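Usage

Read records sequentially. Each one opens with the input sequence:
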Amino acid sequence: MHPLNVLKSICCFLYIAAAIKSASDSLWMTTSNLLPNSHSYSKLSKYCSTMSNTSSYAIAKVGRRFKTSGQIAACDQHNCRSRETLNADIHKSARNEHFVGNNDQPLFELVCNRIGNNGGKKIRTSADPRQSAVLAFEMMLSASPEYFRPNAPSEAGEWDLKKLKAWEALSAQWLKERYGDNIVRATFHRDEATPHIHAVIVPLNEKGHINAKEYIGGRANLVALQDSYAEAMKPLGLSRGIRGSQVRYEQVKEFYKSVKQIESLALPLDELKALAVDRQRQVQKRNEFEQTALALSAENFQLRGQIAALQEQLNRVQQLADRSHELRVISLPEVALKLGMQPSEFDVNRWSSSNHAIVIAGPQFRFAGEGDKGQGAIDLVTRVKGCSFSESLVWLERQLGTGAARAAAIAQVEVAVAEVEASQFIPPVQSEERWSVVIDRLLTQTYLPSPLIDELHEKGLIYADGDGNAVFIERDAQGDIAGAIQRDEAGEFKRLDGSAEEAAFYVVIPDNALMERPDRVVVTDDPIEALAKLTLERTAQPTQCNQYQALGGPRAPIAHSQAVGALSVALSRSEEGEQAAQEVYRVIPWAQSDRPETSHQAQVKAQIDALRAAMKRAQGQSQQLPKRERKQRKGKDQGLGM
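and closes with the structure output:
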């Protein structure tokens, strides 16, 4: 089965669990007849009780590595709860606390301020994130739920206040002693199932250089990190996290056997919360188990049992995916009928009630007189009844029978995944075999400097595709690939389908300026004109940070000029250039005109031709001098390094 289908099913499973978690008590009363049988419930309770009597562990994990401003901004939004977090209780988010880092300053600014000039060493950036420097990494600290709530480990979101404060104090002390000023932000999260800390750390070494390998490179560093944290947590009675498993296989097997007998929508709310939390924790442990089993042969037998139990849970999710095609499609007319709406006798797609009138077209609908379209059964119920997502799920299950809510949620997840996949731009495949032909053509036709083309090729911004076209990669303002332009043998440009409206081909001088916004943006007609303009203006020590870019998508000029001091319009004086310039002036009134009388490429060619002519004249004059004087001048030229 394709991994994407498994991912969809996992998302659907967690989506439904998180939604029903937030349903009101009044809604729960309507589904009280769905309680599991006493036998399964007692097994689940017995497992939770048994787990509460086992050892509690200190948990230290290295999370994501951040190489771009976009990745750091996404982390900032999650940790500050500025975007929706499904597994967080928004009513408890006010309890979260930044204990390191200015609340009012964006995380990316904090990272840049800490990096500074990187000890005078250039930061490696690339269109390929695998080749880029790690600007910061995230550390997650927590402990077993049994530590925070020893008497009721399954009550997600609850904790013993004294134990919580003691753990927070020791963990914060350990972080500051180990990483010092390299911590740019650290946050207590108290609005999820189990309290934890997210810390963002800049990996600066003693020389002031970025070097993530010294911190998190290799197994030895990670083992030492976990040992150090476990040692610091010993006063709280927390022990070292598992190298192999310390959880008895029989307990896990019994738990999953009992879970397998219970339909997810048949659980009470508190047990659903515990099931979702436990499932997430066990999947995370599975990855740790697999890695440890490869390195510690003495514990392989025990780990195989653990992995088998966790694989059983993943197989259950996969079975849901395999059965999803058997779920009947919930038609919107059927839902509309259940909502008390009636079809029009003149138009079968038009449905109405005393309060609403909608037009249905397949899986989509729109309200009469409105342009925005809705998608799917859940969206229709939510908008007609004015209720929440979780209330819509319960209503669908009651009105349309068992599996209706699950089918609707699967359909909605599939739509969301399809939209994300459709929005992702996939650049043409690179062909190194054709590059020699393409670069020869570029140098011959454009007169651009060979070192400049080589530098951009190494960064993945210019390359050859399989058809022998030159490909110029377009990026958004954060440096992420979002489009491409092809240049054929005749020198004609074509912007590829799927390229983002905010994307453009651009080069920043000096190269490390992606750490901050440039001082000036220069907009030209195409990539060759952008590079020619750069060549004309480039100096040994530029006095400001300039970004030379092609026109790109319709929103590229305004997207790239935000928070920039100056924008120069250097478009050609052709009819198309005139129209594009006027459009830029319309959306960016403060833009300055820098439009050339002749193309920048022609100006570069003229300069090269003039230089060649001057060298030829000098060579001719030198040949006319007496032999003795020619030797003297040759000696002077060699002394000057010519």
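Summary fields computed downstream for this record:
- The longest helix spans residues 269-295.
- The radius of gyration is 31 Å.
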